[in-house]
Amino acid sequence: MWVALNNQPVAYYYLDCADENGQTVTNGRIPVLLNGDRAELLVRFDGNGGQIVGARFFYADGETDTVAKSFTELQPGDVIQPICDRYDYNGKYEDTYKLGGEIVYGDTVTVTDVTLDPADGTPVASYVLTDRFSMEHWTPAIG
Q: What pTM was computed for the model?
């Protein structure tokens, strides 16, 4: 299972989880180009499913990207292009890629889980764990 916008798998990053009035709420972010500008959608999962609660933009300052502390609400007609960053095994940034097609924000944008179905039928996952001494440990690929 993986997070998707309109059934299109996207890169998803967990932010936090909280108990609100006896209900578990999970917050995360999805990197996108929003109307051509780099941003991240803020998503919330609760007992009613997933929903987009807003977007935060990045402000380039030369060496690093800074994320705005505030967020903006999406407007009908906003164009969302999911993206993902690729890094090498040493953690060096290589490139940013588009994931799937553009999505026009409106009443029909859904945030759900979808089942991944790769061409060969065997999903593969591997994780990198970083200990407190900044040593990286890769898990074996599972699938």
A: 0.76
